[in-house]
Amino acid sequence: MSQARITIDRDFTIADVPRRLFGSFVEHMGRCVYTGIFEPGHPAADARGFRADVLELVREMGPTVIRYPGGNFVSGYRWEDGVGPVEDRPVRMDGAWHTIETNAFGLHEFMEWSREADVEVMEAINLGTRGVEAARSLVEYANHPGGTYWSDLRRSNGAADPFGIKLWCLGNELDGPWQIGHKTAHEYGRLAQETAKAMKLVDPSIELVAVGSSNRQMPTFGTWEHTVLTHTYDEVDYISMHAYYQEHDGDTASFLADAVDMDAFIDGVVATIDAVKAAGKHRKRVDISFDEWNVWNQDQYNQVEAAEIAAAGWREHPRLIEDVYSMTDAVVVGTLLHSLLRHGDRVRIANQAQLVNVIAPIRSEEDGPAWRQASFWPFARMARMARGTILRLAVSSSQVTTNRYGDVDEIDAVATWDEESGRLALFVANRSLDSDAVVDLDLRGLRATGIRSAEVLAAPSGADRRAVNTEQNPDAVRLRPLEDVAVDDGGVRLTLPAVSWAAVEFDVAQS
Ligand code: AHR
Fold first, then answer.
1. How many angstroms separate the alpha carbon of residue 283 from the centre of ligand 1?
2. Any idea where the domains of the chain sit in the sequence?
3. Left (φ > 0), alpha (ψ -120 to 50) or beta: where does 181 sit?
4. Which ligand 1 atom is the nearest neighbour of the CA of 244?
5. 483 catalytically annotated
């Protein structure tokens, strides 16, 4: 049993909780849209083809904003294909995922679905094969009230009121050679700048995200951000980050510490943004949209799936990257959310990729059921409980030795305090593979008066660590009550099993 202390001071704050941090992502990829959120003819589908069983799980999970329609898909997409009478829409080849795209689902369907799911829409434009003209037409179509060509077309397609989409991504992963329309940083920077200008001429109220590096290992990481922001700083509000993590060669200790990499990645991008700000004598601040993150076994994709996809020929909604998440994966997802929240002063938007079936917290089967993956739980709890202000914690704990990151804190935590409701939420993980940890909370300026809820995902043994939820056994991995938690003289003591993630909510009074 190891010991840890977390000091939480009411006056040491990071930022307000950015509610857009709990975002998700729906791409026209695999079975995320088709047989995921949309399956006409499914017993649970409504007249529009929206699956009510999936929608119910989405509402329970609580994403606040959803990025759409890609991803790599968007770099070859013509948005006009997805509007107008469905029977007139063209069937296209999607080169990004070697898939037949019927366009039965498009912008209007996604806007309606988003209203049902109660989420904000974050729309990505194609800067791979297209540019300024297609982008400004789409903003006019979506956001202009009427009386012009594109806005009247929207109205004639059944949406009298503008969609009012505020958040727009200026393309996707254009630094990557795999991207359709891959560009150098200069090429992309100039195109993004001019496209941003034209989009804001149509609707000055929109917020824009420039494309950052596809991952921290890209050879152009750092110089890409610097060059792109040098071109676009005045026009954009955010730069994107993407990161996927996985267990390499059975190295669970390093995998459990991957949030250390995410922390460093974010710090590096913040430094680059601020260097461009200083050099350009800009006054405004550009923030981060971490608009793709998750656990994803990319080795499996690169070494096996990519070849299978190519060999299988052109199909509609094939199964793609339907990773099945274990209890350990869920603990890592929890710590990645900690990292995002700890950086909530600069990471103002984040999207877990993706929402349904494709590396997703929610799974569904064609003509079958929908269920929660293990990774559903940390997201669902943090999206619901992280409210008010993010607090800056001082954590003192034993160290875990890892191959990738050296010695890292065994205990990883983040907390939020909602002054209005008098609630303090603590999210905390134990990264040790073999040792339970007793954690003391030293509260300053606050006094715990009661425990509202205390739940834990725990994988103390090897078998538990590999546990997953399946169609046949959908509740094998779920949150259970955290028994060892007690309020004592305004402070708190709790015990966390090895390899676990917990969400605890306290009533607090100011002292
Ligand atoms: O989320 C899956 C894919 O990962 C996205 O299409 C792409 O942007 C990223 O490389």
1. 33
2. 2-11+388-510, 18-385
3. left
4. 4
5. no
Determine the residue type at 472: Q
Residue nearest to atom 3 of ligand 1 (CA): 71
C-alpha 167 to ligand 1 mean position (Å): 19
List the residue whose alpha carbon is closest to atom 5 of ligand 1. 71
Two structure tokens written together for 53: 């069983």
> Between vectors from CA 94 to CA 89 and to CA 97, what angle results, nearest 5°?
140
Rg (CA), the chain: 23
**Catalytic-labelled residue, pool 80, 207, 292, 410:** 292
353 lines ligand 1 (CB under 6 A): yes
pLDDT string in tens for the chain (511-residue length): 999 999 999 999 999 999 999 999 999 999 999 999 999 999 999 999 999 999 999 999 999 999 999 999 999 999 999 999 999 999 999 999 999 999 999 999 999 999 999 999 999 999 999 999 999 999 999 999 999 999 999 999 999 999 999 999 999 999 999 999 999 999 999 999 999 999 999 999 999 999 999 999 999 999 999 999 999 999 999 999 999 999 999 999 999 999 999 999 999 999 999 999 999 999 999 999 999 999 999 998 989 888 888 898 999 999 999 999 999 999 999 999 999 999 999 999 999 999 999 999 999 999 999 999 999 999 999 999 999 999 999 999 999 999 999 999 999 999 999 999 999 999 999 999 999 999 999 999 999 999 999 999 998 777 889 999 999 999 999 999 999 999 988 889 999 999 999 999 999 999 8
SS3 at position 373:
coil
Q: How far is the CA of 419 from the centre of ligand 1 (A)?
A: 38
- The yes-or-no answer on residue 292 being catalytic is yes
Task: Tell how far the Cα of 497 is from the centroid of ligand 1, in angstroms.
Answer: 34
> Is 36 exposed, middle or buried (CB count within 10 Å of its CB: 0-12, 13-18, 19+)?
buried
What is the DSSP code (8-state) at residue 304?
I
**What is the architecture of the domain spanning 2-11+388-510?**
Sandwich (2.60)
Which CATH homologous superfamily contains domain 18-385?
Glycosidases (3.20.20.80)
* Distance from C-alpha of 92 to C-alpha of 89, rounded to nearest angstrom: 9
Question: Could you tell me the two tokens for 481?
Answer: 């009550």
